[in-house]
Specification:
Number of helices: 9
Number of domains: 2
Order of helices and strands: EHEEHEHEHEHEHHEEEEEEEHH
Low-confidence stretches: none
Structural class: alpha/beta
Strand content: 15-25%
CATH class of the largest domain: Alpha Beta
Distance between the termini: 38 Å
Strand order of the largest sheet: 8-9-10-7-11-12-13-14
CATH superfamily of the largest domain: Dihydrodipicolinate Reductase, domain 2
Mean pLDDT: 95
């Protein structure tokens, strides 16, 4: 493991690359609320967007932002196609990086990012914030304790209509990589990785059943983990019936987390109420600051290496859909 240089300040000065919907609604408020964080500036081609955050700086490129010695960390909230170059630029400049999901357009990019993170001796995490949901942490504990016996099957479904007006880039494969497979399946794939470790096999089906858009409107992924655990992830932008379902089936019972983004956890005939933070991004920002200030990459909720497992799974789903070349 690389030896990470000591961080000498008690405050982390953040640069946020991108001022889009998620950044405005959750990432920026999380940084502002985190007491050891300073919202230092933004990378944006539209400086007027930063006017709502007085006292911050703006730069048109990541290269210019990370040249500022006062910047400590970069939160990458850009379209997926820009993640790799932005992360590598920041890491090579000696900045810590927390990157939105999925971390890359493909597994090769993700591997290159991981390698740069190791070489940089800076912390590099991926913003899979559901790993810090209290009920997902509790689920992993219950599985380890044998509450449902040997785990056999996991199911995750997230269905909605096509609601991407504020993030239109999501329907452009050159920027987003794909549709719901990249956007919403990535979170559920990572949640399964959090519970069961690195996937061993994966395949998938993608289709445009309802919408004639440049990315798929539905995707189904099949995964296998060590011990023979199977998992199914089905995500859709083509259903008028909203679903946010997640459950783990074992030899002796099951754990129900429906809806995944809600507080309820069902196990052994009882309900535990374990709500997520009001700002879903706050715990991942807080966790990242903890890791940097403690100079301890082992504290990261989702280190880049583990984040890349999702990119591998997505790629397996896409390749299996395409068939042999």
């Amino acid at each position: 493991m690389a030896s990470y240089p000591d961080f000498v300040s008690d405050k982390l000065h953040w640069v946020v690359a991108g001022i889009g919907d998620v950044a405005r609604k959750r990432v920026i408020p999380a940084i502002q609320a985190e007491p050891r964080s300073v919202l230092y500036g933004f990378v944006t081609r539209h400086p007027a967007k930063a006017a709502a955050y007085p006292g911050t700086r703006t730069w048109p490129t990541v290269e210019q932002a990370v040249a500022d010695p006062a910047a400590d960390a970069v939160y990458i909230a850009l379209p997926v196609a820009l993640h790799a170059d932005a992360a590598i630029t920041a890491l090579r400049a000696g900045k810590h990086v927390l990157c939105e999901k999925p971390m890359a357009m493909n597994f090769a990019e993700a591997r290159r990012m991981v390698a740069e993170g190791r070489a940089s001796e800076r912390l590099f995490g991926v913003s899979y914030y559901r790993r810090l949901y209290p009920k997902l942490i509790r689920t992993r504990q219950l599985i380890a304790e044998g509450a449902i016996g040997r785990p056999l099957l996991a199911e995750a479904y997230c269905h909605s209509g096509l609601e991407i007006e504020e993030r239109k880039w999501l329907s452009d494969p050159a920027l987003a990589g794909g549709g719901p497979l990249y956007d919403i399946a990535s979170h559920r794939i990572d949640a399964l990785n959090f519970l069961f470790g690195k996937p061993e096999h994966a395949c998938g089906l993608l289709s445009n059943t309802v919408h004639r858009i440049a990315v798929e409107d539905s995707a189904t992924v099949l995964m296998q983990f060590a011990g023979g655990v199977h998992a199914v992830v089905d995500v859709r932008w083509n259903s008028r019936v909203a679903r946010d379902q997640f459950r783990i089936i074992g030899e002796d019972g099951e754990i129900g987390l429906d809806p995944l983004n809600g507080p309820e956890l069902h196990v052994a005939g009882r309900v535990e109420m374990l709500p997520p933070h009001a700002n879903l991004h706050y715990p991942i920002v807080e966790n990242f600051v903890d890791a940097v200030l403690a100079n301890d990459p082992g504290r990261l909720a989702c280190p880049a290496e583990q984040g890349s497992w999702t990119d591998w799974t997505i790629e397996q789903a896409v390749f299996s859909q395409a068939g042999p070349t």
